[in-house]
Amino acid sequence: MPAAEVRPLDAADLAAVVELERVSQPFPLAAGRLKPALLDRSERLLGIQADGRLLAYAHVSRLPFDAELQSLLVAPGERRQGLAGRLMQAVLGEARGWRSESLQLEVRVGNAGAIRLYRHWGFVEDGRRRDYYPSLDGAGREDALLMSRRMREA
Ligand SMILES: CC(C)(COP(=O)(O)OP(=O)(O)OC[C@H]1O[C@@H](n2cnc3c(N)ncnc32)[C@H](O)[C@@H]1OP(=O)(O)O)[C@@H](O)C(=O)NCCC(=O)NCCS
User: Fold this and answer.
1) Rg (CA), the chain
2) Is 54 part of any domain?
3) Domain for residue 1, yes or no?
4) In this structure, are residues 111 and 70 in contact, taking their beta carbons and an 8 Å threshold?
5) CATH number at residue 111
6) Is the distance from the beta carbon of residue 80 to the nearest atom of ligand 1 less than 6 Å?
7) Which residue's CA is the closest to the ligand 1 atom numbered 25?
8) Residue 69 CA: which ligand 1 atom is closest?
């Protein structure tokens, strides 16, 4: 894996983010959802690119007191090499820069790999949101686990 840098993404990266979503997700986000985030100053998209291809990205939102991780996505062939960890470090840097009190997220209760990653980065479980996601087999709904990490002492 080349030591590609984490860099902020902007409107010029829209097609690359759409393509990464398309090849990586059962329910990919489309351009109409991603474009406003790339233009909004209270949203931050960070990416890792190598050889002209976007391999991974994260999206974090600035809220009045906290920050919320909206997406963390690594291309299927690039997983378990620490890319999500590098993005998480950059996301935590953004939240610190915003002086956010906490970083929050939602994750499918069945997404054991992501939950392990988040625990590793200091997130704790705050509760559940029932039937939040469409289930991956299309047959029903799946709960969200709510997790957060304190960014600074009260
Ligand atoms: C979850 C995801 C972002 C992890 O990305 P990644 O680059 O593979 O993660 P890292 O290499 O930084 O993993 C760091 C640690 O997290 C844990 N982890 C990550 N993926 C895991 C998996 N599939 N199974 C078990 N543990 C996992 C491990 O502890 C791992 O350390 P290790 O490889 O030394 O064992 C990636 O699998 C992905 O994009 N999945 C689809 C989208 C998604 O689920 N996003 C998160 C919910 S919004």
Assistant:
1) 15
2) yes
3) no
4) no
5) 3.40.630.30
6) yes
7) 113
8) 48
The residue whose CA has the least distance to atom 10 of ligand 1 is 82
User: Is 45 within a domain?
Assistant: yes
What is the separation of C-alpha 46 from the centre of its chain, rounded to a whole number of angstroms?
Answer: 9
pLDDT tens sequence across 96-140: 999 999 999 999 999 999 999 999 999 999 999 999 999 998 889
Residue 43's nearest CA partner among 63, 57, 27 is 63
| Residue 28 belongs to domain spanning | 6-150
Tally of structural domains, the chain: 1
pTM for the model stands at 0.95
**Residue 113 CA, ligand 1 centroid: distance in Å:** 5
Collect all residues with Cβ–Cβ distance below 8 Å to 147 and sequence separation of at least 6: 104, 105, 106, 107, 115, 118, 123, 124, 125, 126
